[in-house]
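Input record (one chain):
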Amino acid sequence: MTIISQTLQIALKHHQAAQLREADSLYHQILQEDPGHSDALNLSGLIAHQTGNNTKAADLINKAILSNPKNPDYYYNLGIVLSALEKWKEAIHAYTQTIRLRPDYFEALNNLGNILREHSNTDSAIEIYNKALKLKPDCAEAWNNLGNVLKEQGQIENAIENYKKAIQIKPNYAEAWNNLGSAMSAQNRFKDAIEHYRHALKLKPDVITLDVEMPRMDGITFLNKLMTHYPIPTIMVSSLTQEGCDATLKALECGAIDFVAKPTSRLGSDVENVIEELHTKIKHASKAKVRLRQKNTAGTNGNSNHAQSTHPKSHSSKLADNGKNYTVFKGTNKVIFIGASTGGTEALKDVLIKMPPDSPAIAIVQHMPEMFTKAFAERLNSLCSITVKEGKNGDSLIPGQAIIAPGNYHMSVRKNGAMYRIETNQDAPIHHQRPAVDVLFDSASRYAGPNAIGVIMTGMGSDGATGLLNMKESGAKTIAQDEDSCVVFGMPKEAIKLGAADKIVPLNRIPENILSFLQQD
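The corresponding structure, as predicted from the sequence alone:
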């Protein structure tokens, strides 16, 4: 084995372990020795795509194709990158080239069918899906996808036949049963539709994954019906678009417990990362608490006494809760630090909505990907009397304002004279998270010490537990959400095990306990 081959094998191991910097460094070493090494060009292109530089990715993969124009995988990867760049014509060409070189490339056929369907070229999409099914006639998902495009085209009877084939292959395929019910509804066959919907529910899934964007009945409407009649832990699958973010936040308000962002491409590592994330979240969701929703009410997981109450921005510095009034704080040197994950979007709303407009500065880490944190902050800002915004590097922590860590960035705090400022970075994930609660809490222990209050809330895993302990040991007051009010009792549980919490309280008592701590100074 040559030195280049050995280096490539080592690089691949780093790549598979998501150690992208190390892998890319080795790919570049290979390219310094052999600038036309097609595999190194292709794999370096994949890393560029994974880190969001799709223009660079397309350039590198095109160079790989020039070096080796007969490798169908290169064209396939190029198709994915071009799709991420929304260069649809070029992506179609790349997938077409993939299929020309390897006619049995099922994934390329499926991706091509998806693009054609998304761009209303349904006739061609049907043709491509049929070719894919000739390769994998036992793929229930493919029959279901074909049924969806036929239904969109108005071929309801044909769609029904495809859904039935999907169910024949996979009898416990709840999505196909649901789609079959939807198709029956479109034919006004309501008795049959109800029967199929019931059959889907009889499968009694532990967890449902629900796409925000569905034909006929959108995911939010379905979720509302589900949570009103058959509450089941639900994870939303959403696209990284403004519309997708807004719809996902609405779904969380309606009772979904978590969400996963769709991969921006179908590159192996991207898809594998989402699969791993989904697997972890499904596992934890199976143990989550989901309560029956009342009709025409927004979901609050049953933990708040103020489901949709809001405070006008002009409220005074006193907050009434459980019959008590509090003068909020003395001085402006106090800072509140909060960490949350699964179930945290609604839990944070329930806390922040009770904070008066001149409360101490608040810094928050909620596990969320890019784009979602901005939409989440805007939603909270519209509901709360305090100002809520997504943080930017260098922002000051000021009274009456909550800053939410931006997705895909760690957030920490530093003292700058009499002020606290936030810093953001893209260092390696901690506990598989970026932003990580521990990063924020550790910085609070170093720079805020006894001037801090730390709160750890609902969420899976252990992120924030050690950081909260560090805060307590530095003189901060600390609070953990109790088990009964958590959607997932993970992060608070681990903090409590470490002895990191001064108080353990239900969600609806967290605000009053924060304010109580402030009165002690």
